[in-house]
Design brief:
Pathway: Protein modification; protein sumoylation
Subcellular location: Nucleus
Strand content: 15-25%
CATH architecture of the largest domain: 3-Layer(aba) Sandwich
Largest sheet: 8 strands, mixed
Pfam family, one: ThiF
Radius of gyration: 20 Å
Organism: Serpula lacrymans var. lacrymans (strain S7.3)
CATH topology of the largest domain: Rossmann fold
Number of strands: 10
GO molecular function, one term: SUMO activating enzyme activity
Number of helices: 14
């Protein structure tokens, strides 16, 4: 058994050397939270820009084991936002190119790679999910996200999805029934400063049926529904086109039709928005398939931070859909069907 393979009934204790490496975090989170991270195995599926940023942060934070799955080769496009890759890696498998650079970030973390996505179907997927604590899927189509989310639910595993479409980014999480310690800022001086809290999450297919019916004009406006609904519209476009993203302005009319239909079904307050802005649709029709490094950095950084929160069970994680607008630099969290 390797140093990282503690069983759930007999979790590994942090050594003095590890305590020295993670000293600052232990002061921040507490030893128990760091211990949870130390014993966690995380599965990351697909290694594009968001994943590289997320992996960097969770590996530096001190998880126990990382399993990376990706069957694709490094392309020239990957060199922009995927900072694990170099010019000489083009044509190599992404996981093979990334492995040594991930390991060099933190030698205390065990890194495993799987360079075939055939393992992401049927019983192979079941076996893979059963052996990890948390699954994080990045930059994949909605139908595959829903399928993997359902597998995670069957085995009681935490699920995260994240990605970018040009200047837009998103994070979704399904943490099942999640217990955590939340700071109690309203407590009087002598009272305990934190309280136990529980949040009940919903799977992605349920979240996507969210209706905005009972929200006030102000609440709706604060959540910037155009961005979130455009992300959902791009997913629908992908589903219709066998995983392909819009990549030409001639795709704009179809994307607009899909977005309008989603807006109508979501029953969004018409005083706030009656149609998805034409300019947003136009931009997405030409940029959704491309990665922008700063957007990947923001979304990947937030995704990593939230994964660590969920593992540490300190503070409330995202509940449950975060949408980022790189045009303004603003992000909003919408509680969808929770």
């Amino acid at each position: 058994m390797s140093a990282h393979e503690g069983s759930k009934s007999n979790p590994l204790q942090i050594t003095e050397d590890e305590a020295a490496v993670y000293d600052r975090q232990i002061r921040l989170w507490g030893l128990e939270a760091q211990q949870r991270m130390r014993n966690a195995t995380i599965l990351v599926i697909r290694l594009r820009g968001v994943a590289t940023e997320t992996i960097k942060n969770i590996v530096l934070a001190g998880i126990g084991k990382l399993v990376m799955v990706d069957s694709e080769d490094v392309s020239e496009e990957d060199l922009g936002a995927g900072f694990f890759y170099r010019d000489e890696d083009v044509g190599k498998k992404r996981v093979d190119a990334a492995k040594a650079r991930v390991e060099s970030l933190n030698p205390l973390v065990t890194v495993e790679t799987i360079s075939t996505t055939s393992i992401l179907g049927g019983e192979d997927l079941d076996g893979l999910v059963q052996n990890v604590d948390l699954v994080c899927v990045t930059d994949w189509d909605r139908d595959n996200l829903v399928r993997i989310n359902e597998t995670c639910r069957r085995f009681g595993k935490l699920f995260y999805a994240g990605g970018t479409f040009g200047l837009l980014g998103y994070i979704f999480c399904d943490l099942l029934k999640h217990d955590f310690i939340s700071p109690d800022r309203s407590a009087p001086k002598d009272a305990p400063r934190s309280v136990k809290a529980t949040a009940q999450y919903s799977p992605l297919h349920m979240a996507l049926r969210h209706r905005w019916t009972n929200m006030t004009k102000r609440q709706t406006k604060e959540l910037n529904p155009a961005i979130l609904l455009t992300i959902i519209a791009i997913w629908e476009y992908q589903s219709i086109h066998q995983g392909e993203l819009p990549d030409d302005e001639k795709n704009a009319p179809e994307l607009e039709t899909i977005a309008s239909s989603i807006l109508s079904a979501a029953d969004v307050n018409s005083q706030v928005i009656t149609r998805i802005p034409q300019e947003l649709i136009q931009t997405m029709s030409t940029t959704a398939a491309h990665e922008f490094s700063p957007v990947c950095a923001v979304v990947g950084g937030m995704l990593a931070q939230d994964i660590l929160k969920a593992l540490a069970a300190r503070e409330a994680p995202i509940a449950n859909f975060f949408a980022f607008d790189g045009n303004t630099g603003g992000g909003t969290v919408c509680k969808m069907n929770m």
